[in-house]
Amino acid sequence: MKAVILAAGEGIRCRPLTSTRSKVMLPVANKPILEHVIDSLAKNGIKNLILVVGYERERIMNYFEDGIDFGVNIKYVHQKAQLGTAHAIKQAADLMEEDDREFMVLNGDNVIEPQTIRDLIDKHTGDATILTIKKEHIRGYGVVIASGKKVTKIIEKPTTELSHIISTGIYVFNQEIFERIEHTQISPLGEYAITDTIQQMIEDDMDVDHVLTNSLWRDAVFAWDLLKDNSMVLDRAEDYNIKGTVEDGAIIHGKVSIGSNTVIRSGCYIVGPAMIGDNCEIAPNVVILPSTTIGNNVSVGSFTQVQNSIIMNNTRISSHGSISNSIIGLNNSIGPYFVAEDRENVRIEMEDELHTAEKLGAITGDDITIGHRVLVKAGSMIYHNCRIESGKTIAQILPENSIVV
Length: 405
Fold this sequence. Notes:
Helix 1 (33-42) crosses helix 4. By secondary structure, the chain is an alpha/beta fold. Strand 9 and strand 10 form a beta hairpin. Helices cover 16% and strands 35% of the residues. The strands form 9 sheets. The protein has a 9-stranded parallel beta sheet with strand order 14-17-20-23-26-29-34-37-39, with no helix packed on it. An 8-stranded parallel beta sheet has the order 15-18-21-24-27-30-35-38, with no helix packed on it. It is globular, with a radius of gyration of 22 Å.
């Protein structure tokens, strides 16, 4: 079975992190989300992959190349305009062969595990099968109405809670789906949605089924959702190991992974689950608390505390800092006594709507320089290529290329 992975979208609601990368390339447990998807497919023997790429596609293609290093074979197709999921799937038609009687479709920006894929492989039937999951809050998702296994209706983003069974966006189709897409009408949003295609199949009495899974499926709708994704993946990981150097006097508790050429200096206190990448320098008396991921080539200065946070590659954090429930982007340089304040139920305005993050500190983009004694208030977002001088307090969204003096 081939798999078609949809990886063309930008992920606007995950800004500022997606200002410089596709959503599928956001890191969870030191791997892009897309790598978790590919790994789950490979572990189920699905190794012939078609990636539908678009926004920032060079980053995706440069990272995965032909897929050999990841145990798969990857071919790419470019979706030049993001015109919906059905349109994206149609781009893969020319790469299908006659003996590809059925194939899987899935999104590259959902965090899954191998068993998630196995559940669909083992139980798929009919002309189309939708992998579904039960979810308390259904806003923003496609809802599935079913009689037993048979799907009777699929509703994209309903306004009332008709069902708590939602579509994960993972499907098994046969090649007839391409012809069905040709007859899909454009939606009021100006897109060709695969849910509309499937609904038309249902109305034409075709056999559309669903398979309910209890396995891991996480959709990072907003940037702060990555913190929960990261925590869940770290907690489920089994291959924790220490490759770097841990000096005498450093204390490590629980499941902690430390990469090659990384040095943990004396006096550090690290509690897992936590992951530290390659070529890092963790100075004396640093405290790293659970659900923290630190990328490659990162340095953390003495007496700094980091908890439940994601620190991306090539970042320098000076001494006496406090970073909690935060996401720090690539190539950041952060001065001493930096504080990313956090609190619960943070209200954030995005796309003219108010959203609530359960608990959040700061989110920064890439290539940011921050002076000493800077306080970033909870929920503040700093876009890429900003410079903040010493002694400042940030309590708002900073657009890209801002200078705070």
